[in-house]
């Protein structure tokens, strides 16, 4: 390093070498020794040229924080004094120092002159200096202030020793004058070690995060600077071992003839209180989270209870039903994902509920999600939840269905309706059991078993690239087919009788008998709506029955769909109908129901109630047929 290039000769010259004490001229802003005299070199056993241009903190490698605080104090007050520092001599022995400091140059200058003295070698000189000071009259004033603090300590000795709060006194220079045993215990310093030291540099030099605490900002100093009591509710003190702890304290000025001569600081360790507050805050957050979760679960259960389906068991004696029951028994005790396939109305949800009720998760909820009824832009919020302000309309935090199902089972009904671009996000949660709420960076872990159901051919959709293959295999760990009613005709008598008994009780009608001819009529029908359609037919018969059932269904060769709510646009002519004709009939029937309900799907007067199906089922069918209910709403003129 070229020292001449960075050291201004106007600043240094050769005057520093004529000082009788070891001296350093330091640029505090750059941590740079601008000049050192020969006495300084002799103090540490080197030559002064080797010091020039080096960082000052290299001389005090183990006392860097204290040196920074000391230089900051010097720049603030234009001078400083300390006996807290030491240096290592070249031969290895430690030189205990007494340092005087002063700012050099203009008001904005960052240059500091340090005068360093060997305390052991100059003890005699110090005593002589003190004696001269006493002779000049300073002794009396200094002794008077010292006695003031001693009298205060003597008069309050019992209190100082009895109280649990830490108490210490400082003079107008911020140097320790007394401390009680509680302060010793909390700070880790002995009383004799604190006396005469600038306590800000000992216990208050830095904030909790380690950043420097400027002397000019210290409320303790402000107390006797402003002659006012300073109360601080939360701050940080440092112990002798370098550890810290949170405190609250009061700094009260001590006045002598109206002039502040120091302050008494009373402080308390608030670690336990902060920990209790943090625990309380954490507990309140958990309570709030549980409250929101319970509210969501309650809302979900209310929604489930109001839906138009029954929590009945799976009825039947056919081989198909027995096979389904066996597969339920095999997979229920495990946590394997299940994919239930089958036509609408075959009871896929009943199979899902049977699996959940037979599993170890039965004490946690089964959360159902109708994937077809979720708008594309709300998919993430519905599944994973969101935080307040995550998007327009997010006025509060919302718990998603995955979080509601934590520890339980998530039933994804009509999973084939999930848009392709959103399937990857679902796959990630199924793989990692982790997710983030919309608008939140925090990752949440869940323990969820997934049961999916669909009436679509997902394997074919994988081939057509409209359904992700990896998601399909993640869902299809254990497949179960829900067999259509026409393939288990032997179960129709059992199901019909069960529905008949329930309908009579539900509508408060006399008990009706199911005759042999009724059974044959029911078996002869194709049942495109499966078990759900059978239940609806029986309920309508109970409502219209006059003492007995009067079933009038199409014959055994017909594939026409029965419609007892609204006459179809065209009547069965005895000929087979194509699939296109059947879809057209269904579309006409649905549009007529929407016209009669003025576009309403839900509610007692809604189209779903007129048709005798669940609103979610109607919503799915309308979406499949690309029918918009709002087009049938009556607009005010």
From TrEMBL:
Domain (Sigma-54 factor interaction): residue spans on this chain: 314-543
A molecular function (GO) term: DNA binding
The UniProt record lists the keyword DNA-binding: yes
Pfam families assigned to the protein according to its UniProt record, in alphabetical order: AAA_lid_14, PAS, PAS_9, Sigma54_activat
Keywords, in A-Z order: ATP-binding, Coiled coil, DNA-binding, Nucleotide-binding, Transcription, Transcription regulation
Family matches, as InterPro entries: AAA+_ATPase, AAA_lid_NorR, Homeodomain-like_sf, P-loop_NTPase, PAC, PAS, PAS-assoc_C, PAS-like_dom_sf
Domain PAS positions: 152-204
Gene source species: Marinobacter salsuginis
Biological process per Gene Ontology, one example term: regulation of DNA-templated transcription
Record domain PAC: where: 231-282
Coiled coil regions in record: 273-304
The name this protein goes by in its record: Transcriptional regulator
């Amino acid at each position: 390093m070229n020292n001449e290039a960075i050291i201004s000769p106007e600043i240094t010259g050769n005057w520093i070498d004529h000082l009788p004490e070891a001296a350093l001229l330091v640029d505090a802003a750059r941590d740079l020794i601008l000049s050192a005299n020969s006495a300084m070199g002799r103090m540490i056993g080197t030559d002064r040229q080797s010091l020039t241009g080096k960082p000052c903190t290299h001389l005090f490698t183990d006392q860097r924080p204290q040196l920074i605080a000391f230089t900051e104090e010097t720049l603030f007050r234009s001078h400083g004094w300390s006996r807290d520092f030491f240096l290592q001599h070249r031969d290895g022995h430690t030189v205990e120092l007494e340092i005087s400091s002063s700012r050099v140059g203009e008001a904005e200058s960052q240059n500091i002159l340090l005068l360093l003295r060997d305390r052991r070698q100059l003890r005699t000189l110090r005593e002589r200096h003190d004696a001269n000071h006493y002779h000049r009259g300073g002794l009396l004033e200094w002794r008077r202030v010292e006695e003031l603090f001693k009298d205060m300590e003597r008069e309050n000795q019992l209190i100082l020793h009895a109280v649990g709060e830490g108490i210490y006194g400082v003079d107008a220079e911020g140097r320790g004058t007394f401390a009680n045993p509680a302060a010793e215990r909390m700070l880790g310093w002995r009383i004799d070690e604190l006396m005469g030291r600038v306590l800000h540099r000992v216990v208050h030099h830095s904030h909790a995060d380690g950043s420097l605490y400027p002397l000019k900002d210290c409320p303790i100093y402000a107390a006797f600077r402003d002659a006012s009591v300073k109360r601080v509710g939360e701050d940080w003190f440092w112990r002798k071992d370098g550890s810290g702890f949170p405190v609250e304290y009061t700094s009260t000025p001590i006045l002598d003839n109206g002039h502040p001569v120091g302050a008494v600081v009373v402080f308390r360790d608030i670690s336990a209180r902060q920990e209790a507050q943090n625990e309380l805050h954490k507990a309140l957050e958990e309570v709030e989270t549980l409250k929101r979760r319970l509210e969501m679960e309650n809302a979900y259960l209310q929604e489930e209870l109001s839906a138009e389906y029954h929590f009945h068991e799976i009825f039947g004696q056919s081989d198909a039903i027995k096979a389904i029951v066996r597969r339920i028994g095999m997979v229920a005790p495990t946590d394997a994902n299940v994919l239930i396939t089958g036509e609408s109305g075959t009871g896929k949800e009943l199979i899902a509920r049977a699996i959940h009720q037979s599993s170890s998760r039965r004490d946690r909820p089964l959360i159902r999600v109708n994937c077809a009824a979720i708008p594309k832009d709300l998919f993430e919020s519905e599944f994973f939840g969101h935080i307040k302000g995550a998007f327009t309309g997010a006025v509060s935090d919302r718990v998603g269905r995955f979080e509601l199902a934590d520890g339980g089972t998530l039933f994804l009904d009509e999973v084939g309706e999930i848009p392709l671009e959103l399937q990857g996000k679902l796959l990630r949660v199924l793989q990692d059991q982790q997710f983030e709420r919309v608008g939140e960076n925090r990752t949440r872990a869940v323990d969820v078993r997934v049961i999916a159901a669909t009436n679509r051919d997902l394997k074919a959709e994988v081939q057509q690239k409209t359904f992700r293959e990896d998601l399909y295999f993640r869902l299809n760990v254990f497949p179960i087919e829900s067999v259509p009613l026409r393939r288990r005709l032997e179960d129709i008598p059992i199901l019909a009788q069960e529905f008949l008994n329930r309908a009579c009780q539900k509508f408060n009608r006399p008990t009706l008998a199911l005759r042999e001819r009724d059974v044959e009529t029911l078996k002869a029908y194709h049942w495109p709506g499966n078990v759900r359609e059978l239940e609806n037919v029986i309920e309508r018969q109970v409502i219209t029955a006059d003492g007995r059932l009067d079933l009038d269904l199409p014959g055994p060769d017909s594939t026409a769909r029965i419609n007892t709510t609204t006459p179809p646009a065209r009547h069965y002519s005895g000929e087979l109908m194509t699939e296109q004709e059947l879809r057209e009939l269904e579309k006409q029937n649905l549009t007529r129901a929407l016209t009669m309900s003025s576009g309403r799907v839900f509610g007692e007067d809604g189209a779903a109630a007129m048709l005798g199906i669940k609103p979610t089922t109607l919503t799915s069918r309308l979406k499949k047929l690309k029918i918009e209910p709002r087009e049938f709403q009556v607009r005010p003129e």
